[in-house]
Amino acid sequence: MIEPVVSWADGPIVAMDLETTDVDPRRDRMVTAAIVTITPNGPGMRPEVNTRTWLADPGVEIPADATAIHGITTELARIEGRPSPEVIDELAAVLAEVWTPTTPLCAFNAAFDLTMLDAELQRHHGRSLPLSGPVVDPLCIDRQLDTQREGKRTLAAVCGHYQVRLDNAHTSSGDAIAAARLAWRLARVYPEAVGRVAPHVLHSRQARWYRDSEFAYADKLERRAAGSDARGDGDGAARLRARAVDVRAGARSWPLLPETTAQLESTRRRLPPRPGGVANSHASWTPDQDAALRDEWLTADPVDVAETRRKEIATRYGRTPGAIRSRLLRLRCDPELPGRTCDEQRAAELKRIYDTEYGR
Q1: pLDDT tens digits along 19-76
Q2: Which of 129, 206, 217, 314 could be disulfide-bonded to 321 (CB atoms 3.0-4.6 Å)?
Q3: Residues 6 or more apart from 342 whose CB is under 8 A from it?
Q4: Could you tell me if 109 and 214 are in contact, meaning their C-beta atoms sit under 8 angstroms apart?
Q5: Hey, which residues does 322 pair with through a beta bridge?
Q6: Under the phi-then-psi rule, with left for phi > 0, alpha for psi from -120 to 50, and beta for the rest, what region is 37?
Q7: 42 vs 30: CA distance, rounded Å
Q8: Cβ atoms < 10 Å from Cβ of 66
Q9: Which pTM value belongs to this model?
Q10: Residue 125: exposure state from Cβ atoms within 10 A (0-12, 13-18, ≥19)
Q11: Contact indicator for 246, 262 with CB cutoff of 8 Å
Q12: pLDDT, tens digit, for every residue of 61-70?
């Protein structure tokens, strides 16, 4: 008798997709959104699928090129869409309710959608997007596990390759459901690398895969820059190198791309270690260390004891547990909940508690 595969894909999952005014997640605006929740019912029964959709008036013109893709014009968004701040707030609230440490979020090219939502939250409400649980990105997984396949890696192309149905392409609801179907199929195609892996571990793997892929792309940009130099195109070479720097900076932050560039990060002041303390007491944190700490905390098992986890990390980093706790808070990780981020309200609450402990 063949035992069934035990996989996160057989449990509840959430999927999300956004359609936007353009392709820069920090600059452009959301137009439509969908959140799909898929809940299994029982052996041999179809899962329960619930879809919520939103149409926002982004407050800016929707370019014709974007309308040609998703079909939403500026006029339609203004007449039928709700104000963007209202939509963004509601969307984030629903996402926080259904996306948990044990219910992964599926999104194709997740870094774009989550960064876009984070930017919109900061723009309209002055708060960042909490990462409530692990992310499953079929694009990231496919790129890593089928590196030799030629051709495009669009949602339609990847669905076609894995024989996954894509209905109503370029609508938020259609693309979100397709992302969930792709995630399920990939869990079956790659059971050892994807399907049987705990969601928080799979999240960690994808962060590493994304980082490696982006670093390889940055290397390619630098090779092109060298070619431009050889041809006497100094301006072109400078642009390519600047792009490579930004790609490397963003590579460390999956699934939320950073607002700052590597050039800005590199100007931060470095402090020497404090004499008499632990190995790295009072030493400044580098961008790589910040990225590694954030990644380690957000991919921790949610059932871990926070205090024990912080002590283990402190030993490896040559820091005090208090320093780890403070740094996690600065990185908008919840120091009391492994695997979770926190918003500004939660961060302010924890800071007050910590300051009271230190008598500040």
Answers
A1: 999 999 999 999 999 999 999 987 778 889 999 999 999 999 999 999 999 999 999 9
A2: 314
A3: 130, 329, 332, 333, 334, 350
A4: no
A5: none
A6: beta
A7: 36
A8: 21
A9: 0.76
A10: middle
A11: yes
A12: 999 999 999 9
- The sign of the torsion formed by the CA atoms of 190, 192, 193, 199 equals positive
Burial class (CB in 10 A: 0-12, 13-18, 19+), 168: exposed
For residue 335, count other CB atoms closer than 10 A to its CB: 24
- 3-class DSSP state of 50: strand
CB 341 within 8 A of CB 332: yes
The model's pLDDT over 155-182, given as tens digits with 9 standing for 90+, comes to 999 999 999 999 999 999 999 999 999 9
Which of 213, 219, 247, 204 shows the shortest CA–CA distance to 142? Answer: 213
pLDDT at 194 over 90: yes
Give the residue among 75, 81, 76, 78 at the shortest CA–CA distance from 55: 81
Cα R_g (the chain), whole angstroms: 22
What is the C-alpha to C-alpha distance for residues 43 and 6, in angstroms, rounded to an integer?
13
Contacts of 354 (CB under 8 A, 6+ apart): 325, 326, 329
